[in-house]
Design goal:
The structure holds 2 protein chains of 2 kinds. Chain A is mainly beta. Chain A contains no helices and 11 strands. In chain A, the strands form 2 sheets. In chain A, strands 2, 4, 5, 6, 9, 10 and 11 form a 7-stranded mixed sheet that branches. Chain B is mostly beta strands. In chain B, strands 2, 4, 5, 9, 10 and 11 form a 6-stranded mixed sheet that branches. Chain B has a 5-stranded antiparallel sheet with strand order 1-3-8-7-6, with no helix packed on it. Classes of the chains: A mainly beta, B mainly beta. The interface between A and B is medium-sized, with 24 and 29 residues.
């Protein structure tokens, strides 16, 4: 069966420090992968998506970047965190129609 | 044209009552409409979904009603229980270049079911 792993679960980082969040999917190949951010409030904002290794599309210009070094690995990074980067970061993958996305358990990032 | 508008923002229902959350969209190319349920500190989980060629889909206490001509769809939770208290998101799926499909989410509804 397919599963999605996301870590760490929580992270407290100082302003100006780097960031690396990792997401991996098991049990499938060549998935479409997505990074979302959920700020205090509830909306889900799509940050990046990837349809394959090395292929990254950015939805919103920001202080973050994404990479897909392997088929089932998706990484969200920042060189220097801002206070406004705080939020709940969610990775998701798309098993294809007729299914919706499957989300990971999320990373709560607090920038202090 | 990619927006999905969701209402209400928050909803309080008594145990045993009916919870109704509404969503509207503009893009007629959307081809799949899922609802997600999210508990605090957890990722959203797929609850129920519908295709635009179906007017209603029921799974247990959860029903989606879909009105293609009005470009609206809604989630009905019958016999609402305190355990249903969560944030609910509607979404709509559309193409986003090549073979990639993208979900556009509503802003969410915080449902509280009082015992």
């Amino acid at each position: 069966s397919q599963t999605i792993h996301q870590w760490p679960a929580t992270l407290v980082q100082p302003v100006g420090s780097p960031l690396s969040l990792e997401c991996t999917v098991e049990g499938t190949s060549n998935p479409n992968l997505y990074w979302y951010r959920q700020a205090a409030g509830r909306g889900l904002q799509l940050l990046f998506y990837s349809v394959g290794i090395g292929q990254i599309s950015s939805e919103v210009p920001q202080n973050l970047s994404a990479s897909r070094p392997q088929d089932r690995q998706f990484i969200l990074s920042s060189k220097k965190l801002l206070l406004s980067d705080s939020g709940f970061y969610l990775c998701a993958w798309n098993p294809g129609y007729p299914y919706g996305y499957t989300f990971g358990s999320g990373t709560r990032l607090t920038v202090v | 044209q990619q927006q999905v508008k969701q209402s209400p923002q928050s909803l309080i229902v008594q145990k045993g009552g009916i919870s109704i959350i509404n969503c509207a969209y503009e893009n007629t190319a959307f081809d799949y409409f899922p609802w997600y349920q999210q508990f605090p500190g957890k990722g959203p989980a797929l609850l129920i979904a519908i295709r635009p060629d179906v007017s209603e889909k029921k799974e247990g206490r959860f029903t989606i009603s879909f009105n293609k001509s009005a470009k609206q769809f809604s989630l009905h939770i019958m016999d609402s229980q305190p355990g249903d208290s969560a944030t609910y998101f509607c979404a709509a799926r559309g193409k986003s270049g090549g073979s990639n499909y993208k979900l556009t989410f509503g802003k969410g509804t915080l449902l509280t079911v009082n015992p």
